[in-house]
Amino acid sequence: MRIGLYPGTFDPITLGHVDIIRRATALVDRLVIGVAINRDKGPLFSLEERVGMIEAECVKLSDETGTEIVAHPFENLLIHCAQDVGASIIVRGLRAVADFEYEYQMVGMNRSLNNSVETVFLMADAKHQAIASKLVKEIARLDGDVRKFVTPAVNDKLLAKLGK
C-alpha cells in the first residue's frame, strides 16, 4: 500500500488544499492529511476544529476517488510524522516560486534525515494559486467575501469564528 502524507496547518482548509488533496489521491492508496499543531503560528481554529473541517471536506473526496483519506495531528518533525504513519511520499503543494525556494530547503533537510521518503510537488490549479489560508482569514476579518476560496461549510465556520 502506497501511503502519502500531505502536511500543513490548514487554518482553514481552502479550495487550493482540496485541489491538491484530490490530485494526490491519484498517487497513493492512502492519504494522510498531517495537521500541524504548530503553536508558533497561533491558528485561528483549534486543532479539533481544523481536523473536523478536513474530515468533513475529505469524506466526499474519499468516496469519489476510492482513496482512504485520514486526518492526523502532529507536532514532531515532518519526517518523523511520515515515519509514524508509514508514508513513503510527502506531498507538497506549490503556488509560486517563493514556495519552491523554501520547499527545496525542506526536501534537502528531510532527505538528510531519511532518504527513503520522497517528496512530490503538485502545482495548485491556476484558479487556486493565489489562495493562502492567511489571506483568506484576513479578507474575512475585513468583511471581504471568501466564498471563491473555501467551501460553503468552511465559509460558514470562518464567519462564525470571526463573529460575523
Gist of the model:
With 164 residues, the chain is α/β, with parallel strands linked by helices.
Characterization of the model:
With 164 residues, the chain is α/β, with parallel strands linked by helices. It has one domain (3-161): HUPs (Rossmann fold). It has helices spanning 15-24, 47-65, 78-85, 97-113, 133-141, 152-161; strands at residues 3-8, 30-36, 68-74, 89-94, 118-123. The chain has a 5-stranded parallel β-sheet, with helices on both faces. The termini are far apart.
What's the end-to-end separation, in Å? 44 Å
Q: How much β-strand is present in the residues? A: 15-25%
The beta-strand count equals 5
The CATH topology comes to: Rossmann fold
- Binned, the helix content reads 40-55%
Secondary-structure element sequence? Answer: EHEHEHEHEHH
Q: Identify the CATH class.
A: Alpha Beta
Task: Sketch the major β-sheet.
Answer: 5 strands, parallel
Mean pLDDT: 93
Radius of gyration from the alpha-carbon trace, in angstroms = 15 Å
Give the domain tally.
1
Numbering strands along the chain, what is their spatial order in the largest sheet?
3-2-1-4-5
Going by CATH, the architecture would be 3-Layer(aba) Sandwich
Number of helices: 6
Give the low-pLDDT segments: none
Return the structural class.
alpha/beta
GO cellular component, one term: cytoplasm
Organism: Primorskyibacter flagellatus
InterPro entries: Cyt_trans-like, PPAT, Rossmann-like_a/b/a_fold
Domain Cytidyltransferase-like: 5-138
